[in-house]
Amino acid sequence: MIEIKNLYKDFGKKKVLKGIDLTINKGDKIAIIGPSGCGKSTLLRCINMLEKPTKGEVIFNGINLCDKDVELNKIRQKMGMVFQQFNLFSHLSVIDNITLAPIKLGLMSKSKAEKEALRLLKLIDLSDKKNEFPNNLSGGQKQRVAIVRSLILNPDIILFDEPTSALDPEMVKEVTEVMKKIADDGMTMVVVSHEMSFVKEFASRVLFMDDGNIIEQGSSNDIFKHPKSERLKEFLSKIGN
Amino acid sequence: MEWLFNIWEFFVSIWDNFYYSVIYDRRYEFILEGLFNTVIIALFAVILGIVIGVCVALVRNYHDKTNKLKILDKIAKLYVNIIRGTPVILQLMIIYYVIFKSVDINIVIVGILAFGINSGAYVSEIIRAGINSIDAGQMEAGYSLGFTYSKVMRYILMPQAIKNILPALGNEFITLLKETSVGAYIGIIELTKASDIIASRTYDYFFPLIIIALIYLVMTLGLSKLVNMMEVKLNNDRD
Ligand SMILES: Nc1ncnc2c1ncn2[C@@H]1O[C@H](COP(=O)(O)OP(=O)(O)O)[C@@H](O)[C@H]1O
Ligand SMILES: [Mg+2]
C-alpha cells in the first residue's frame, strides 16, 4: 500500500532522516520505537507530506506523493493522522469535530455524517459528550474523539504519533483499547509509541529507529526478546525492558 | 451689588460665545457636516482597510506556509513597510497633491482612499497576528483530514482567529475616527476642520474646540465600551 524508498529529510543543515526504506502492506500494524529526537515524527509527517521529503519517494497506492502535481488533499483523505496533542478543533463541539471533514469535503450529507458520527461515538463510549467542547474533555476523551474524527473518512491507513504520550497514566488504557478495536477491524496502522506493553500486544511488526535510520525490524518477539543490534539492546535496557 | 452684576455679565458673555460659535448663522451645521464626514471617512476607510488587509494577510500567510506567491508576497511586504514607516499625513498629501493632482475628485473620497490604504497595512498585521495566535496543530489537523489551504482557513483557522481579530478591528476603527482629523490639512471638512472654520469667523476657539473634543470622546469611549463587551462575549463563547 505504501512504499518508502531511500527517504531523506533535512531541516537546514540538520539531517533527520537518512535513507529510510519501508514497505507497508494492507492490514499491517506497525509500531515505531526509538529514542526521542531520532526522527520518528518526521518519518510519519513525511508519509502524509506534512513535511516535504528532501529526497526519495513515498508511493501510496501507486502514486508518488513527492510529484509536484499530486493533489495531496485528496490523498490525505485516505490517510488519517492522530497527534500527540490531539489537535481537536477547539471552536467546534465533539460531533462537529467529527463531521466537519466529511461534510465540508462533500463526502457525506449532513444527516449521514451525523448518523455515522453517533455510531462512532457509541463505539468509543462518548455518546453523552457529543455536544461538549474539547476544552471540557479529559485528555483520554479528546484523543478518542480525534481517532474517530479520522476514522469517519474511512481511510486506508491511520498514522498515530505518540497518541498516549500527553495523557495521564490512568487514561492510556482507554485510548489503546480503542486503537486495538480498530486494529481488530483490519485497519492498517502505523503507531509511534513509548507504551511498550501496548506495542507488544498490538504490533505485527516493530521498527526500531535511531539517528534517522531504521536499525532493526521484526515481530515484537524478535525485537523485545532477541534484539540483535547493540543500539537496540541499549535502548531496551534504558527503558527498563 | 456689583459682584452680582459681574457674575451676570460673565454668564452672558459665555452665552454670547456659545451663541456666536454654534447657533448664529446656523454654524452648528459645520459641526454636523464635520461629524458626518468624519464618520463616513472612518467607516468606509475601515471597510476598505479590511478588504485590503485580508488580501495582504492571506497572501503573506499563504507564502509563509507554502513558499508560493513569492512576488506578491514581496509587494505586500513593501506596502506594509511603506505605510507603517511613513506618517499618515504624508500619505494623505501624496495621494491628494501628487496622485490626484489633476483629477477632479471629491475630497472626501480622497480621504477614504488615503485612510483606507493606510488602514489596510495595519489591518493586515492584525489579521496575521490573529491567525498566528492559533496553534499550528489546528492547521495540521485540518490538512491531515484532507482540507485544502483555503478550506483550512475558512473552516478552522478563521473561525478561531476572529475572536482576536474582531476587537482589534474595533480598536482600529476608533483609531481611524481620531486620525481622520489629519484630513483637515488638505481641507476635508471633518470635525476638526469644522471647528477651525467656526473659530476663524468668531476669533474664539473655546467652544468650537471643546464641542468637538466632547464629540470625539463620546464616540471613542462609547465604541471602546462596545469593543470591551464584544471581547467578553467572544471569550465566554464556548470556553
Ligand atoms: N520543523 C523542524 N525544524 C527543524 N528541526 C526539526 C523540525 N522538526 C523536527 N526537527 C528536528 O528533527 C529531529 C527529529 O525530530 P522528530 O522527528 O520530532 O523526533 P522524534 O519524533 O523521534 O522524537 C529533532 O532533532 C528535531 O529537533
Ligand atoms: Mg515525536
Per-chain topology:
The complex is a heterodimer of chains A (241) and B (239).
Chain A: E1 2-11, E2 14-24, E3 29-33, H1 40-47, E4 55-60, E5 63-64, H2 72-77, E6 79-82, H3 94-104, H4 110-123, H5 139-151, E7 157-161, H6 169-184, E8 188-192, H7 196-202, E9 205-210, E10 213-218, H8 220-225, H9 230-238
Parallel strand pairs in A: 3-8, 3-9, 6-7, 7-8
Antiparallel strand pairs in A: 1-2, 1-4, 4-5, 9-10
Chain B: H1 2-23, H2 28-66, H3 70-85, H4 88-99, H5 107-132, H6 136-144, H7 149-179, H8 191-202, H9 206-236
Task: Provide a descriptive summary of the structure in words.
The complex is a heterodimer of chains A (241) and B (239). Chain A is of the alpha/beta class and 241 residues long. Chain A is built from nine helices and ten strands. Chain A has helices at 40-47, 72-77, 94-104, 110-123, 139-151, 169-184, 196-202, 220-225, 230-238; strands at 2-11, 14-24, 29-33, 55-60, 63-64, 79-82, 157-161, 188-192, 205-210, 213-218. In chain A, β4 (55-60) and β5 form a beta hairpin. In chain A, α3 packs across α4 (110-123), α3 (94-104) packs parallel to α5 (139-151) and α5 (139-151) packs parallel to α6 (169-184). The longest helix of chain A is centred in the last third of the chain and has 16 residues, at 169-184. The model of chain A has no long low-confidence stretch (mean pLDDT 95). Chain B has helices at residues 2-23, 28-66, 70-85, 88-99, 107-132, 136-144, 149-179, 191-202, 206-236. Chain B is 83% helix and 0% strand. By secondary structure, chain B is mainly α. Chain B has nine helices and no strands. Chain A binds chain B through residues 48, 50, 72-81, 83, 85, 87-91, 100-101, 104-105, 133, 135, 146, 149-150, 153, and chain B through 135, 137-138, 140-148, 151, 155-156, 159-160, 238-239. The complex binds adenosine-5'-diphosphate (ADP) and magnesium ion. Adenosine-5'-diphosphate binds at residues 11, 14, 16, 36-42 of chain A.
